[in-house]
Amino acid sequence: MVGLIVARSKNNVIGKNGQIPWRIKGEQKQFKELTTGNAIVMGRKSYEEIGHPLPNRLNIIVSRTKKFEGENLITASSVQEAIALAKDKDENLNVYIAGGYGLYKEAIPFVDKMYITEVDLVVEDGDVFFPEFDSDEFDLEIGETGGDEIKFTRTVYVRRAGEKAKDKAADAAQITYKRLTEAELEMFINMRITQMTEEYEAVGKRPPEDVDLKTALKDFYHRHMADGTFVSWLALDGDKIIGTSGMSFVEKPPYFSCPTGRIGLLSSMFTNPNYRRMGIAKELLHRVVEEARSYGCGAVWITASNMGVKLYTAYGFEHNGNFMQYKL
Ligand SMILES: NC(=O)c1ccc[n+]([C@@H]2O[C@H](COP(=O)([O-])OP(=O)(O)OC[C@H]3O[C@@H](n4cnc5c(N)ncnc54)[C@H](OP(=O)(O)O)[C@@H]3O)[C@@H](O)[C@H]2O)c1
């Protein structure tokens, strides 16, 4: 279960001057009860405000600029990655998105439940708000009321079946698969550059400005698609590319377990986050692996991202402990 937990004022304020703008005895009790023994995901600023990991639960901090590590403390570069990391640790953990604004906004389309404490207060000059959402996608359960001078009411918004953005996407999506051709090349190249730029930005860097990657990629794909040493399978929703894969073929002097000497180099594995966990990456992987088989390759090599390792291991890839690289 992926949940979201927040307290908001009558005018939707959740933060002011880097803090929660109220102190109400008992208001945070539910937070402790729900999250203890589970996982919480919070933005870097919220975490720095608290200043330490909360005990007896997995703390995942979302940041692109800082790394927090310790006992029960890890860092992720997006909400999606945070959830994947929590589920990798323990599939049964409930994951609670605990703010602030950007995390809530990213998570609302797919959370199963939103625990919203409605605080009976109007906060002037708030500077962080809870994002707008479509309440028709949820059933509302009203819970207990508490508080002394300032009252609060517990509410739970429970996602209606089939209303998850991902479910809707899966239902609406007419996923088709096709080999990359000249017709999709421009879009494919733009996607690759966006993806690689985001990988730099995720670690707080900018890609080098003096590299004309677009021209280099165009040249590469033209040459290697023409001589058959690069193939790519795409997943499309309508005419939009939502998943990519790539396989290059190289030859080494043959060896006993690979008498053709032909090796497939896997690259460009990517699925649009809104289409993940629908089996698309697995299908794309299968298609390019079969391409390598029919080219006569004896092995397929990859350099896997952390998120990719699970997919590749499930498919049957094995670690090769001595793999090293020398950068030129
Ligand atoms: N009322 C409540 O229930 C509640 C709950 C939580 C927080 N709050 C309040 O909300 C305020 C803090 O919220 P905030 O929105 O200003 O900050 P925040 O979400 O706590 O932290 C923002 C930082 O988190 C990282 N981040 C956020 N979204 C990201 C994304 N999608 N991908 C990668 N990194 C992302 C970035 O860190 P880097 O800059 O390091 O990349 C960003 O600068 C405080 O006033 C706090 O008290 C209230």
Walk me through what this model shows:
This protein has two domains: about 160 residues, 3-Layer(aba) Sandwich (Dihydrofolate Reductase, subunit A); about 160 residues, Aminopeptidase. It is about 30% helix and about 25% strand. The model has no long low-confidence stretch (mean pLDDT about 90). The site of NADP nicotinamide-adenine-dinucleotide phosphate (NAP) has 29 residues, from β1, β2, β3, α2 and α4.
Chart the SSEs and their pairings.
Blueprint: E1 2-8, E2 13-15, H1 29-35, E3 39-43, H2 44-50, E4 58-62, E5 73-76, H3 79-89, E6 95-97, H4 101-107, E7 113-119, E8 128-129, E9 138-146, E10 152-159, H5 165-172, E11 175-179, H6 182-202, H7 213-226, E12 230-231, E13 233-237, E14 240-251, E15 262-271, H8 280-295, E16 299-301, H9 306-315
Parallel strand pairs: 1-6, 1-7, 3-4, 3-6, 4-5, 15-16
Antiparallel strand pairs: 2-8, 7-10, 9-10, 11-13, 12-14, 13-14, 14-15
Helix pairs in contact: 6-7
Residues 6-7, 14-15, 18-20, 42-46, 49, 62-66, 77-79, 98-103, 106, 128 line the site of NADP nicotinamide-adenine-dinucleotide phosphate.
The structure class reads alpha/beta
Major β-sheet, in short? Answer: 8 strands, mixed
Q: What is the domain tally?
A: 2
Mean pLDDT across residues: 91
What is the end-to-end distance? 46 Å
Spatial ordering of strands, largest sheet: 5-4-3-6-1-7-10-9
What is the CATH topology of the largest domain? Aminopeptidase
- What share of the residues does DSSP label as strand, in percent? 25-35%
- Output the CATH homologous superfamily of the largest domain: Gcn5-related N-acetyltransferase (GNAT)
Low-confidence parts:
none
The ligands bound in this entry are:
NADP nicotinamide-adenine-dinucleotide phosphate
CATH class of the largest domain: Alpha Beta
